[in-house]
Model the fold of this input.
Amino acid sequence: MSVLVVTGTGTEIGKTVVTAAVATAALAQGRSVAVLKPAQTGVGPDEPGDVAEVVRLAGPVTGAELARFPEPLAPNTAARRAGRAPVRPHEIAEAARELAATHDLVLVEGAGGLLVRLDDEGSTLADAARLLDAPVLLVTQPGLGTLNVTELSAEALRARGLSCAGVVLGSWPAEPDLAMRCNLADLPVVAGLPLLGAVPEGAGALSPEEFRSAAPLWLAPRLDGVWNAAAFTASVAAPAPVAG
Done:
């Protein structure tokens, strides 16, 4: 995968930390990595954005942004309110291709969920993925409600003829509840996609050294890690129901 598009089932579910983990694991394998954030919202001109966080955690990656809008809104709304031109899918594809010419892996991190609008015409990150013919990595949350939104996102990808590499849990807690433990087994079934990792809750607060040492342990071999979905699921399996 020279280009991998990272999206999610919503906002604030750990996409940036997952992107940093994927970048870290690739770097550990000796691969050169670039991270592209097409539309950064909710961050001022001189404030660090998601790309800066990936660089802080992962280390020597090339970071790039196409646009930055100050209000924490969907990219099309934020661009319109800022009186600026929105980011278009072809611009994302062109920037990713340029980075791919000089890097082994380019990670394109979207804003919010898969179908968050980039412009008033309804363009989305899915359109950029189609132009790139790039697989999509879907980040989701582990708790109650995730089965529905993950399945909907997977169906949207398939309906658009896009390939999905798999699903990563963006914030796995130290003490998962019953729904979370059940969801581990149910997510691959309802989404029709493999589980490719589980990033611990609070991983973004680790020191860069701790993060870089641990990141491959959170990701499956397809993402340059050593995480095993079957073993992880078995280790936190929900107890059998009590007969009534």
